[in-house]
Amino acid sequence: MFPLHDRTRRKIALAAFGTLCVLPTALLLLWGLLRHTPWHTAAEVRRLEGILGLHVRVDRAQNTKPGVWRYEGFSLYDPETGRRLLRCEELEARYWRHGSSAPGALVLRAHGPVAHEPAAAALYQLLSRAMQGQMGTAPLDVLWTADELVFRNGAGTVHLAGLSGGTQSHPGGVKAHLRFHPAGGEGTEPAHIELHRNRQVTPPVLEVKLYTGAVPLPCRLLAVGLPAFEPLGPDSRFLGYLRADQTPQGWRGELTGQFSNVDLGRLGRESFARRWTGVGRVTIEHARFDAGRVVEARGTVAAGPGTIERRWLDAAVEQLGLLRSTPPGFDDPVSYRQLAAGWRIHAGGLHLKGQCTAACPGTLLVGTEPWQVGEPVVQPLPVAAVVRALLPHGTAEVPATPQAAWLLRRLPLPEPAPDAPARRTAERLR
Q: DSSP E strands: which ranges in 355-419?
């Protein structure tokens, strides 16, 4: 080492101290101050909006640790209507990546989330985009938890507790799952929903599995991703199991369970026309459907008291060959006390078995006056007769109406008679 003057050594030490200590400390303090400014929060909000495709508002954003963000007063808004979809008192996001080739992982913890009426559909669309790989170029696995979720809509409020779920990428597609307890169901078996985006087939297929656990789930909550639950009424609930695949031709799968508090008036009004009123219970022992059409189903139905449009009751008796004793008076609609039946529908037709406890065996319907309707003698009933009974048109043919088309797209297709082609050929030869 060559000797240096004392003044030179002090200058070198001061320069090294300023470069290696003071400057990094000042830059670090400046970086920390900038991260607590409104400009930094605005930049973070813009980044989230670019990922989610929704408007985001955050009261405060903090980068508490490397890869850990805390959002206070986190809200999501519909970009078109401006309506608030979701609000969390606090949302914590933790992100890390195990390696350059491994998918990143994001862990979300929500405290006090409240979802409003249009939120569920918007969040379901957000999940669909994520499962289709439309949320960014890099794969991202997400795990999230929430102590409680409050879902509010015009029909009331639904409380869910102990929520946990996430999405996970794999070579064959993406899987998403959700577990939760309905209000009052803590300590019982949780509900479980699983979605699988299967990319090993062309085009990709969405597979859905739903198990309600020990407590029935509100149908208006399930209708977010499964619109078929919507017409059952605001107070209806489902307890059971559903497996379905969304194919280009329509839904295919099976269902077993019980629907309670079904609004028969709304079900009829939403499906074809308003023919009856009352609240009932529909039990599905087993049902198979394909391309949106019922292949085979069996179960029971029980409802009452309520009313039935007289024209529909007369058409049902005539078209289905029901046995009616002591026709009701001239009231319209006609009041009934109990409706109870076992049923089975398949390609061969409809089977009905009366199960009213307030009348003799084989009774399907008991009126408030001394009249009743019994099960048909000749069974099974043709599917076309069922359509004519549900849609009285005054003719012996299936009515050419949108409601009839709606029913025919969902009921089983009748099997052709084995000798039908030969009969048509012989008729042409004659």
A: 363-367, 372-374
